[in-house]
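Q: For a teaching handout, I want to show students what a protein-ligand complex looks like in token form. Below are the inputs, and the small molecule is flavin-adenine dinucleotide. Please produce the holo structure.
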Amino acid sequence: MAKSLLEEGHRPEVFDRQPDLGGVWLLRSESKQAGAYKKVRFQTSKYTSVFSDFSGPSGGGHFYGVSDMHRYLSAYAEHFNLSPHIRYRTEVTKIVACADRWKVTVARDGEIRTDIYDGVALCQGLFWKPWQPDFAGLSSFQGQVMHSGSYFDEECLRGKRVLVVGNGISGMDIAEDATKSASKVYWAMRRPKLIMPRMAGFVPNDFQSPASLLADGDPAQMLERIRHSMPDYYRQYRKSGLLPNLDEFREQPVVQINDGIVQMVANGQVEAIIDEIDEFQPQGCRFKHSQRNLDVDIVIFCTGYANGEYLDSLPGVSMQDDFAMGIFHRDNPSLVSTSCPLGIAYSGTFFFPEMVARWYARVMSGSYRLQDNELNYHLDRRHGAVMGPIASLVFGLKLGLLPDPKREFKAFWQLLNLPSFPQIYRLRGEHSDPDAANRLEELRKLSLTNGKQTAALEVVKHRILAGFDDVVLRDLLRRGEIEERDYQGAGRYATRAIVFDWQSQYIMRGDAAARSETTPAYGAPHNHVDDEDYYRKLLGQLKTGELDNQGLLKALAI
Ligand SMILES: Cc1cc2nc3c(=O)[nH]c(=O)nc-3n(C[C@H](O)[C@H](O)[C@H](O)COP(=O)(O)OP(=O)(O)OC[C@H]3O[C@@H](n4cnc5c(N)ncnc54)[C@H](O)[C@@H]3O)c2cc1C
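A: Here is the structure, written as tokens, with flavin-adenine dinucleotide included.
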């Protein structure tokens, strides 16, 4: 936020109650209460989980750990000389409207200061207030109770019988971690979620282009693809009993990333219990459906964080009702929130605060005027999660950072077929970076796009073109931006046009199942393949150079 504001000519003053830079990535073992733990590794690769204007040090693995991320953030602050603008050990305690500006109170070492600001950006993060369900009998449990927020590493579990509750990222990581020191690890969840390893074959799991995401008709085909492209993993997955229910996955097609837990459950190192906890007892707990009693020494609740409707520092302002799109204060958009109120799927999360910051900087300088349809967009319970690659695209179009598809369709389509590399959003528009094209080219080589279009992608292309009127299509055709068959194809999909409006970035609850029934399965180009010969053939083609990594990926439609 500070960098984007400076870039646009504003004078930011940043307050952070921590003693140093890093947010959740400033990890300290003493009195840890929230955020990351020692062995966290990013689930998304360092190619999508960075800011668009700074790639970070090269080398190392594909996925950052805690110290890598801390180093990256420190290098970023140094590169853009941000430290002089940050006041550490300073807590924001109150923000109140003051005419069309904001009165902000901060506290440092017991000293209180109040100032008036033209705008306020809330960048307080989402992982600071541990939340756990209110289980019957928990106070009678004689063992130890902790939350993943206070978990640092597995040392505290040595020799103990551990129950890990919850199958989000921290639940999977901590259950895996616990096997290194605990005498027994139980892992309880109400229902399984889809788990993928960090590397999907030859590339990181988040090398999903927006075009390939749009090609997926039925989310449940993802399981089919895992079965075909990672047969060993799929075998372990079946053995583990953790395969999710397809209908539930269709409803909420969000993928969790973890490398070891499926195998650990399959080989018995971790005992998964798919059931609800009925109540706690002095020695452990009882499960609801199986009525099983479990004796344990320690329970770790990996049940997430409370990001309530109201912030302590912002009395009377509802983060749900008062923020358009979950971002701008509806009545006075000089108050903005950078934390995505929903989970982000299929890409790193960094693009979200960055895009909001770039948008906000322009709103504050008057070079972007928010429209009524933006200020009236309301997030409700149907909004399930954000599809990262599509959201980047929607932001990019809004802020003029992408080629206008109605004028430069070829260039737009090319970028749409790349994974969600942040550098895409520095190629053009305000505050573009002359080096972005080179950095993008390096990344493109990593993903090795061969430029070939599958039938499924061609349909996506035609569905996008179907959203343009005939005058635009004819102009694109005349200027060689599209071919005759694209023009014809657009006509075939008139009723199923893809439009990149604000809504298009969300996975809506309840809509996915309906969509999978009405939408042909364009994302399953290898549905006809039921044996392993096909994969051997692909590997052979890869070895001889007939196919590159991206070609392989496309053939498998990952
Ligand atoms: C275990 C874990 C794994 C993750 N894995 C990934 C991943 O694989 N990929 C990915 O892209 N993202 C991942 N994330 C998310 C990622 O960490 C966040 O997207 C990013 O770090 C959030 O940065 P932030 O600055 O918005 O918030 P934070 O890092 O939470 O920073 C917020 C800062 O605000 C300060 N603050 C809060 N309230 C106040 C106040 N009232 N006054 C003063 N200061 C205040 C806090 O002290 C903190 O320093 C993960 C997060 C966790 C916890």
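A: Two things your students might notice: The pocket of flavin-adenine dinucleotide is lined by residues 15-18, 23-24, 35-36, 40, 42-44, 49, 91-92, 123-125, 127, 169-170, 313, 338-339, 348-350, 353 (CB under 6 Å). The longest strand covers residues 91-98.
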